[in-house]
């Protein structure tokens, strides 16, 4: 069985890729993250994932390119609903690509982060699955988060300190200042 794994970054992918392989599934990493800002952050995350995919012999599909304007157009200028809109954009793109390119199902590394809205990611993935007629593979990867972060640190993979969006970065700096 082959699975298209929406992948936000290398560190979050480490344990997810390993998990799917233990389940006799062949994952392909799908990098589609119009939310990541600034452009240098986008490049750093893609480079980190590229290194991981090379090391683990994982197929990497980078789709969509840097999409700040697209992200801003769907996130209501950073309002409360921005995370849901961001999840919807990325998971619908993943489901569409998976359905159009012969994958058996799709999932996301967003499910590993203890900092993301897990219930909303699951709900959004299931909605995208219905919309595009391809199963969403749900698994709670959060117990594997710190193992993946430790492995990323040992491997020298770039590790970020915020989700990637300009609004999250602003919140991070405000917390430091206040």
CATH class category name: Alpha Beta
Uncertain spans: none
CATH architecture: 3-Layer(aba) Sandwich
| CATH fold category name | Rossmann fold
Q: Considering DSSP H and I runs of 4 or more, what fraction of the residues is helical? A: 40-55%
Structural class: alpha/beta
Whole-number average pLDDT?
90
Total number of distinct structural domains: 1
Q: What shape does the CA trace take?
A: globular
| Total helical elements | 7
Secondary-structure element order, N to C: EHEHEHHEHHH
Could you give the distance between the termini?
49 Å
Report the major sheet. 4 strands, parallel
Spatial order of strands in the largest sheet: 3-2-1-4
Percent of sequence in beta strands: 5-15%
Fourth-level CATH superfamily: HUPs
Q: Say how many strands there are.
A: 4
Radius of gyration: 15 Å
Task: Give your account of this protein's structure.
The protein has 178 residues and is α/β, with parallel strands linked by helices. It has a single domain, classed as HUPs (Rossmann fold, 3-Layer(aba) Sandwich), CATH 3.40.50. It contains seven helices and four strands; from the N terminus they run βαβαβααβααα. It has helices at residues 10-22, 39-56, 68-74, 82-100, 118-132, 145-155, 166-177, and strands at 2-6, 26-31, 59-62, 105-108. α1 links the parallel β1 (2-6) and β2. The longest helix is centred in the middle third of the chain and has 19 residues, at 82-100. The protein is globular, with a radius of gyration of 15 Å.
